[in-house]
Amino acid sequence: MKDQLEKIKEDALKQIEASDALEKLNEIRVAYLGKKGELTSVLKSMKDVPPEERPKVGQMVNDARAIIENRLEEAKASLAKKAREEQIRRETIDVTLPAKRNNVGHSHPNTIALEEVERIFVGMGYEVVEGPEVEYDLYNFEKLNIPKNHPARDEQDTFYINDNIVLRSQTSPVQVRTMEQGRLPIRMIAPGRVFRSDEVDATHSPSFHQIEGLVIDKNITFADLKGTLADFAKELFGPETKVKFRPHHFPFTEPSAEVDVTCFKCGGSGCRFCKGSGWIEILGCGMVHPNVLRMSGIDPDEYSGFAFGVGLERIALLKYEIDDMRLLYENDIRFLRQF
């Protein structure tokens, strides 16, 4: 029994000495000191030892256990110290190295253009109003004086969810919802995403953004509309900018017009950017149709107003001289870093 205990102790100490990982030390502890370990087996065989020898053998087993446990703790402390030193060496920070530069982003060209437009109109006393992108046909068409047989109802132009619900094709429904509230006068712009069934190319996308404006008050005339848009153009494109109104047709305004501004590249003399005309089309506008006022609960004999709408992407394309609308959506970091 003595020789067996001595051999167990020596084997255990050799294995501890050869261990190079904390996991191995744990395996040794289980193999020799665990419930099914070597020393435990010796204790279980004590019934075969003569009674007078049992105290002595028990003491030898306890001594062997104490030696193995002490050596395990020493080895564990040594390996833990080496691991800490290696970790400290590996994680040492060289304060003389140059710092890593943070890659800080910035606003998208669309966002920059939108914030500038909002700044201009808020400065004129307008409020910014938002509305749902999934809209009732009633608000997207009917209350804008667009009857059932109008070409804009064609499913090739509008995304229909069902007979009564569409993805809004303009932000004009926000104007109707605001008029229905009956809080007059109204001075508002309605920016937001709109949807039309267009093929993707350099100037079209099935999803884009519009900014539409509305003013309703007593004694509003076309002169107010012209003055407002002239000031807007000068703020956006420069103080020398002039505007030109061309007659047009929109179902929800009468009279209606399309607005051109003098080319900010050539000042109106004609260049490649304006295709030699000296003018660039930017938006559509007009006086709010009496039917639209009436359907929203406003008396057209007492109140009048004007409305206008401009594509946000069009402003960004013109302002930053971008020749392909798709660049705004492709998220090419090389392109976006230019703004």
TrEMBL record:
SUPFAM superfamilies referenced in this protein's UniProt entry, alphabetically: Class II aaRS and biotin synthetases, tRNA-binding arm
Cofactor binding description: Binds 2 magnesium ions per tetramer.
GO cellular component: cytoplasm
Intracellular or extracellular location(s): Cytoplasm
Catalytic activity: tRNA(Phe) + L-phenylalanine + ATP = L-phenylalanyl-tRNA(Phe) + AMP + diphosphate + H(+)
Subunit structure: Tetramer of two alpha and two beta subunits.
Name of the protein in its database record: Phenylalanine--tRNA ligase alpha subunit
Protein species of origin: Hungatella effluvii
